[in-house]
Specification:
Helix 3 packs across helix 8, helix 5 packs parallel to helix 6 and helix 10 runs parallel beside helix 11. The strands form six sheets. This protein has a seven-stranded parallel sheet with strand order 6-17-16-14-12-10-9. By secondary structure, the protein is α/β, with parallel strands linked by helices. Strand 9, helix 6 and strand 10 form a beta-alpha-beta unit. The protein is globular, with a radius of gyration of 23 Å. The protein contains 17 helices and 19 strands. It folds into two domains: 315 residues, TIM Barrel (Alpha-Beta Barrel); 30 residues, no CATH class.
Length: 468
């Protein structure tokens, strides 16, 4: 299927030129001497009065040139490796919700490390979830080690590629290296990638930009970008905010490439409006889908892999609003060709995580993948001979051509396609009930291949004893 675009080539040229002008004339605030020195040693200029670093266009052009254009994210099990290439769309969980809708009681409560692990195990069992993030948060653990507890939970509950929030980049790298084992070089087969954000407008915070540098030096992929709010931390227009986002991401790219030429870098943007009536950053607004589409266009413009968002909702519960908004954002991200679409499992504008929405998000992702699948037009697929053989008033049900291609149809395991009598006889269960039942069944039955006991013990020791 042809990729949907928001911007024309002329649009992208203008956004690029304006982004470069922002970096050359306004600059970005960098709260890290390490990152600032990388830039100034390479020709950037510090503006002492504004506390910014102005970055020349040539530095950005070289960074774009040096960045790898195709990146592979690796799972503990090579079967789950994913290639970030043109036309390849992959779906994953959201990140670090503070609240959880309890699977057994339905109550809204604070997230725990156990939730992070159970959600990862559920995602590991679902066929259309391609990468795993800590959808919940380890709020029952000390604040300065929560990111390590979350990675520990992920490593022990999924064999799929992991992307995690990094507060302690070096600690996460040590854990990932331990999980990879002595026979694996982490940079040649990184099973964990970092996620980090700028602070809009136009700022790089010390911890996150230095984590970016650490991951770049290690040759491990970094997902780095902006979570911009239109009308609050960025201009109210989509074009204006994306121009600012682009300047922020390109400056991060320059820092990563100066840390290590060829460091794997993934262009990231998660942006939406700040709703003026509720003061909430909406995760179901059409503008979220538009920002994601535009950011995907920009990443494609530079030949960079893109990390975006879909499958999320502002609804507080698993209802019609949740399913509708999740479908809207997932489909748009798929049609735009976003390489990594995170956000499955979010409700309440990413404040809360839902086991049921993970299951529903997987089903939606499966439908989107089916829509994106190539449908070649050939004499074989047109099947003139079969049409001729069946003729008027015939049936295609038992023809060899039907049997050959029947497997291409999407087979739902969640949506109910039965007639009313069959649905009613089975309890007349609404979608949320079916999703909950499926989640409980999968968690009861599915267990990924565990880490070797000695490696698991080593990682637990790192979690407990590594300095913050």
């Amino acid at each position: 299927m042809k990729q949907l675009t928001l911007f024309s080539r002329d649009d992208l040229d203008l956004i690029h030129s304006q982004s470069i002008e922002i970096l050359e004339r306004i600059g970005v605030a960098i709260r890290s001497e390490m990152a600032s020195k990388l830039l100034t040693d390479s020709g950037s200029e510090i503006n002492q009065s504004r506390g910014t670093v102005k970055i020349p266009a040539a530095l950005i052009e070289q960074a774009v040139k040096n960045a790898p254009k195709n990146i592979t994210l690796y799972g503990r099990n090579p079967h789950y490796d994913i290639k970030l290439e043109s036309g390849m769309v992959h779906f994953g969980l959201g990140l670090n919700a503070q609240q959880v809708l309890d699977l057994e009681t339905g109550e809204r409560r604070f997230s725990t490390k156990d939730d992070v692990g159970r959600m990862a195990r559920l995602a590991d069992a679902l066929p259309n979830i391609d990468f795993v993030m800590p959808l919940g948060s380890a709020l029952d653990k000390p604040k300065n080690s929560q990111d390590r507890h979350e990675l520990d939970a992920l490593l022990n509950n999924t064999e799929k590629p992991i992307i995690c929030w990094a507060e302690n980049g070096q600690g996460l790298l040590r854990m990932a290296a331990a999980a990879a084992g002595e026979d694996e070089n982490l940079s040649s087969r990184p099973i964990v990638s970092m996620y980090g954000l700028t602070t809009s407008p136009l700022q790089h915070e010390k911890r996150y930009v230095e984590n970016l540098i650490e991951f770049a030096k290690a040759g491990v992929p970094a997902v780095y970008g902006s979570c911009i709010q239109l009308g609050a931390t960025g201009p109210i227009t989509v074009a204006g905010s994306l121009t600012q986002v682009n300047a922020e991401v390109l400056s991060g790219l320059a820092i990563a490439q100066l840390a290590k030429k060829g460091a794997p870098f993934i262009y990231a943007c998660m942006g939406s409006i700040l709703d003026q009536y509720t003061a909430v950053m909406s995760h179901g607004a059409p503008e979220l889908a538009l920002v994601n589409a535009g950011a995907t266009d920009l990443a494609t413009y530079y030949g960079l892999p893109h990390f975006g968002v879909g499958g999320c909702t502002d609804s507080k519960v698993v209802d019609e609003q949740a399913a509708g908004e999740a479908t809207e954002t997932t489909l748009m991200a798929g049609l735009c060709g976003t390489h990594l679409v995170h956000g499955l499992g979010y409700v309440e504008s990413s404040v809360t995580a839902s086991y049921d929405m993970i299951v529903i998000g997987d089903e939606i992702a499966g439908m989107v993948k089916r829509m994106l699948a190539d449908g070649p037009v050939t004499r074989e697929t047109i099947s003139f001979e079969t049409i001729d053989r069946v003729g008027p008033r015939g049936s295609f049900l038992s023809t060899p051509h039907t049997l050959k291609y029947l497997g291409q149809h999407f087979r739902t395991t969640l949506m109910d396609r039965r007639r009313f009598d069959g649905w009613q006889k089975d309890g007349a269960k609404h979608l949320a009930i079916r999703a909950s039942e499926k989640a409980k069944k999968l968690l009861a039955e599915h267990q990924p291949q565990p880490l070797p006991s000695d490696i698991s013990a080593t990682i637990r020791t790192m979690v407990e004893n590594d300095p913050p």
